[in-house]
């Protein structure tokens, strides 16, 4: 292997939040049978095994949302936490999200949403509560952030974050929260080697300037960076929501072969997979925490293999050159 084992520095989203490894688990697919195949290809037993495997691999951050599986993701996560909170090797950190919608027209609606998430999660406090989208209907962004600031003061949430916010929107949210002496903890956005747009549109630069952590969702580009999908067999391999994504077409998969070959080559020298190399690349970026999705214990263990080692500067340069075109292109998912 090219480099010695190392320990990635732990991070915290707020002084009241536990320190965690800079790595998390996304749970969009937990309980979701509309976009994903929950109840068909996998179920609660597989997800519980994945949860346990992640904990024992040293991963303690789990990101969910009230809209994932229409609340089922939160319910499953809450059930698993209840079972393992006494035996987990470290503190479990929960992040969830509130979706602004037109029918939520006053601050009380947000307060109720926090209460409902707490109930589904079976928790007294949510470590990180995020605004899922920068929508501004009847309930203004200022009112949302003001309401969440009060929730922090009351102890029902530990830190406040946003998701899918532009650089300007991030600055506005940061400025609004500063009036309550509360930092903006995170901006959750799509970020991977196949979607590097935050490097060119100001989001990453702004986050670094303001001390905001970037939670990188879709860090494996919905599985494209695993090397699992091949151009010749795309029609038979691609299932579910991926069928709607042009990146999974034969033509789309052909475009990424040079990058996949490089990731595989580098991975072989570390006895790591292409996916682990892609995730490690994100870990080397300043203030970035990848949150890949998992459905099985094997996926949890595989993802954890991105921790404990580091790419060389030469390898980083090679990866940058091959993936640079995706600084100005790329698409993200929910």
Net shape: globular
Main sheet characteristics: 8 strands, parallel
- Strand element count: 8
Strand content: 5-15%
Number of helices: 12
Unreliable residue runs: none
Overall mean pLDDT score? Answer: 91
Give me the side-by-side strand order of the main sheet: 1-2-3-4-5-6-7-8
Output the radius of gyration.
Answer: 19 Å
The assigned structural class equals: alpha/beta
- Give the proportion of residues in helices: 25-40%
Order of helices and strands: EHEHEHEHEHEHEHHHHEHH
Write up what this structure looks like:
This protein is of the alpha/beta class. The protein is built from 12 helices and 8 strands. Strands 1-2-3-4-5-6-7-8 form an 8-stranded parallel β-sheet. Helix 2 packs across helix 3 and helix 9 packs antiparallel against helix 12.
Brief overview, please?
With 334 residues, this protein is α/β, with parallel strands linked by helices. It is 38% helix and 12% strand.
Can you tag this structure with a few keywords?
334 residues; eight-stranded parallel sheet; 12 helices; globular
Topology, element by element:
Blueprint: E1 24-26, H1 44-56, E2 61-63, H2 72-84, E3 93-98, H3 107-121, E4 126-131, H4 141-154, E5 157-163, H5 167-178, E6 184-190, H6 203-210, E7 213-217, H7 234-237, H8 250-255, H9 257-270, H10 274-283, E8 288-290, H11 297-304, H12 313-323
Parallel strand pairs: 1-2, 2-3, 3-4, 4-5, 5-6, 6-7, 7-8
Helix pairs in contact: 1-2, 1-11, 2-3, 5-6, 9-10, 9-12
């Amino acid at each position: 292997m090219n480099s010695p084992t190392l320990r990635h520095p732990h991070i915290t989203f707020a002084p009241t939040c536990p320190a965690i490894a800079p790595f998390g688990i996304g749970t969009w697919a937990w309980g979701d049978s509309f976009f994903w195949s929950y109840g068909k290809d996998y179920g609660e037993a597989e997800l519980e095994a994945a949860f346990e495997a992640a904990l024992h691999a040293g991963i303690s951050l789990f990101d969910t949302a009230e809209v994932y599986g229409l609340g089922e993701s939160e319910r499953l996560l809450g059930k698993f936490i209840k079972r393992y909170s006494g035996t987990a090797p470290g503190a479990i950190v929960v992040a969830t999200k509130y979706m602004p919608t037109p029918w939520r027209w006053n601050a009380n609606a947000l307060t109720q949403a926090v209460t409902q998430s707490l109930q589904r999660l079976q928790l007294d406090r949510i470590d990180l509560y995020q605004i899922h989208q920068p929508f501004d209907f009847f309930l203004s962004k200022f009112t949302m952030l003001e309401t969440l600031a009060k929730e922090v003061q009351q102890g029902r949430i530990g830190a406040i974050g946003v998701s899918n916010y532009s650089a300007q929107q991030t600055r506005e949210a940061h400025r609004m929260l500063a009036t309550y002496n509360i930092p903006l903890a995170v901006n959750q956005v799509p970020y991977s080697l196949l979607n590097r747009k935050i490097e060119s549109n100001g989001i990453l630069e702004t986050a670094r300037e303001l001390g905001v952590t970037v939670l990188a969702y879709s860090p494996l580009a919905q599985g494209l960076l695993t090397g699992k999908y091949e151009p010749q067999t795309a029609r038979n391999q691609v299932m579910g929501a991926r069928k709607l994504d042009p990146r999974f077409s034969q033509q789309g998969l052909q475009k990424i072969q040079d990058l996949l070959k490089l990731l595989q080559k580098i991975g072989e020298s570390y006895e790591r997979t292409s996916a682990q190399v892609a995730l490690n690349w994100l870990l080397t970026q300043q203030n970035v925490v990848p949150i890949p999705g998992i459905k099985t214990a094997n996926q949890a263990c595989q993802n954890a293999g991105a921790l404990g080692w580091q790419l060389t500067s030469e390898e980083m340069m090679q990866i940058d050159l091959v993936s640079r075109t995706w600084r100005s292109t790329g698409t993200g998912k929910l």
